[in-house]
Design goal:
globular, single chain, seven-stranded mixed sheet
Amino acid sequence: MIRFILTCIIVVGFLILSIPILIVEWIVGKFNSNLKAVSSLRIVQAVFRLCLKVAGVKVTVIGEENVPKDTPVLYIGNHRSFYDILLTYTRCERLTGYVAKYEMRKIPLLSDWMQYLNCLFLNRNDLKQGMKIILNAIEKVKSGISICIFPEGTRNKNENELDLLPFHEGSFKVATKGKCPIIPMAMNHTSSIFEDQFPRICPRHIILEYGKPIYPEQLSRENQKRLGAYTREIITDMLKKNQSFLEV
């Protein structure tokens, strides 16, 4: 419980104490929006790293060299834990916006930081709003900002982490319409940090692997039509391989 309490103190404390920083960032954004976005990214990454340290999370990262450094990408990952966001966001070198559930927009201060970070809030029950968010994500990619989506649509609570939920094909329009590569991300063992023994937070060894870029236009016509399923298969294979690694 000590790790849980410390994490809560860090998160709540940061949100409250960062009110002046939010104001400063807002002023900076009036003169230089890119500087504001980059500084906000680095600030939040520092807080996330502290949360991971307090949780005692050890991360083995595989294939990070597969992420292009000269172009925005669409990150696609499996999703089993709140810690998935912390683990992946601390690795982002360039501006990256996450697609989050709409309910998070109602959380004071947190939603402000998320908007500073180019995050988008998706209402899964509103098809029209969902299409608008995808279009917004496409525009962000075209402007040089990467996007991260967990296309299962919600946290996967299946007992076997290899049993992924279906990937929503609409998420992949960000890559096909935005003309950017897809980077598959596979995260093993993340629910064991927190969700499996809620509310305790336990030290764990996590594997985060980045797959090789997928360029939709280079795939066969059949795989272009089933891009979500195609990417899901790649992530499942990585999860299976790294699950064996953790067991050794």
